[in-house]
Amino acid sequence: MSSTVNGKPLTEVLALLREVKYPAAKKDKYNYFRIDEYISVFDEVVGIANYLVDYTDFSYSRITTNQEQYTVKCRISILSDDGEVILYRESYGGYTCQYEKNTGKDTNLSNSSNFACHAAFKNAAKRFGIFGAYGKIDRSVDAPSKATRDTKDTQNKKNSILNFVTEGKFEVVDTKDERPVYKLNAYEIVGDVCRDSISQIIFYPNMYSKDAKKMNGYITKCSNSRTKMRIKVQCVAERDSVKQYVFKSFEVAA
């Protein structure tokens, strides 16, 4: 049986998939790779005939009274040149329904399944380490120097309790352990002053599930209006002058 994939050893194929690349596209001011960029890399590196994509477990769920989501599991299988599956990775992806204010209808109903599949494909591809961004939600366009990274890594390990006022509703950007990973835009409050620049907070399920009732309450509140929030966070990066935080816990208002 052949141990090559598209004429190359599997180790070389994986190394090529994991080459660090930086996206040129932006969505809502944030960097991201388009679905066609993911597929192009697999077509070129793995080979069109050397990988299979399967979608299963398509489902619908109501996250809160105001949020509904479609999810699906994607498995990407790499085949040897003899047609045997030699490695696969799989992950879930989701699409959150968005409704037109006047009619109440889902604005993307006909494409909801495609959006969920695209998200699942990207997440499965990340498990191969594609673009050198293993498990990351996005990457900055400019790669920082090692000295800068070391300094920031030391600073970013610290948790801080901060006050925010939210801007918009919670958005599902990924899934982890079959539960949604949320993104929330918010303005940091310093003293009695709200900063001009917006920040982004990521809520992972292993953190917010510790106080699910309060989390669901904030999801509902933020879908209707701006909401003040006092939380413990870890600053993980700054991309395009936007601070990136990871949620750690809810705190009692000062």
Automatic annotation (TrEMBL):
InterPro entries: Rad52_fam. Keywords: DNA damage, DNA repair, Plasmid. One of its GO terms (biological process) is DNA repair. Belongs to the RAD52 family. This is Uncharacterized protein. It comes from Butyrivibrio hungatei.
